[in-house]
Write a sequence for this structure.
């Protein structure tokens, strides 16, 4: 998320941020931990397995984490070890494109292949924020999960420094495009929903409006029952299960709200895996790739 020179950012990261935030994050993760492990890892693995089932044996699906295990390098090594694979389709699970997220996956893949003698044919899906399969799965999920007594819907997306958008990132526009498409499908009027941004860090300006600030103001506007959904997260994680569903809930209730509903991410919902499988097939067909992926 931070686009600063390494000589400036790395000392700050290693000497100040990591020692403090790692201890804080460990405590927060304990509050959302599943029996099988981290929600991010558990739901991601289930999603990958479901996509594999949707695509069938002519495809080989490997899960990789940008930061964590299994790593991108280990996933690429697994694919390279299969002599039948001639091309690789890369699908970062970030529906909306940002240089700090989607493009960083490409950087990690490029770094891996710098050390390789033979490079397979590579294809990269850089965003799917407006793909019908993604939007339809989300809309059906929201229709199923939304409570009839709620007053207002917040579409909360992960924050991004304003500087990144000023430099050309399409992320903000894509977030609004996703939300507006979903609102149309759900027949929501403009006064019934809002786009907000969460998970900011530091003192610099990030994309606004900030989710926590809006939640604190809603009761003053007479909105006392709010629903929050996070369409930019493919699966639930610390930012949704702890930040939104716990901390931000308290902010809203303490400000005078009466009911706070968090709608889980699509996670391993069959509509999610089927939609992503459709996206992959379409990309394969459009680029005339070998079906033996």
């Amino acid at each position: 998320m931070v686009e600063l020179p390494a000589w400036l950012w790395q000392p700050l990261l290693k000497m100040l941020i990591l020692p403090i935030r790692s201890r804080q994050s460990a405590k927060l993760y304990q509050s959302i931990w599943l029996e099988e492990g981290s929600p991010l890892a558990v739901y991601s693995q289930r999603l990958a397995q479901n996509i594999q089932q949707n695509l069938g044996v002519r495809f080989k699906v490997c899960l990789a984490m940008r930061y964590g295990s299994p790593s991108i390098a280990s996933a690429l090594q697994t694919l390279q070890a299969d002599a039948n694979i001639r091309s690789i389709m890369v699908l970062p699970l970030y529906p909306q494109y940002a240089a700090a997220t989607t493009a960083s996956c490409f950087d990690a893949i490029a770094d891996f292949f710098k050390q390789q003698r033979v490079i397979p044919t590579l294809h990269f899906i850089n965003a799917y924020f407006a793909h019908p399969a993604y939007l339809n799965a989300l809309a059906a999920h929201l229709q199923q999960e939304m409570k009839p007594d709620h007053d207002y819907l917040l579409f909360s997306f992960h924050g991004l420094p304003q500087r990144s958008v000023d430099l050309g990132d399409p992320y903000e526009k894509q977030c609004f495009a996703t939300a507006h498409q979903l609102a149309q499908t759900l027949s929501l009027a403009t006064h019934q929903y809002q786009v907000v941004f969460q998970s900011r860090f530091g003192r610099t300006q990030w994309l606004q409006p900030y989710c926590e600030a809006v939640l604190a103001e809603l009761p003053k506007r007479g909105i006392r029952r709010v629903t929050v959904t996070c369409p930019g997260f493919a699966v639930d994680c610390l930012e949704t299960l702890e930040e939104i569903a716990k901390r931000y809930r308290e902010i809203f209730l303490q400000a005078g709200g009466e009911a706070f509903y968090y709608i889980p991410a699509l996670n391993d919902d069959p509509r999610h895996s089927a939609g992503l499988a459709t996206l992959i097939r379409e990309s394969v067909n459009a680029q005339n790739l070998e079906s033996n992926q």
About this structure: The first helix runs from residue 6 to 30. The chain has a mean pLDDT of 90.
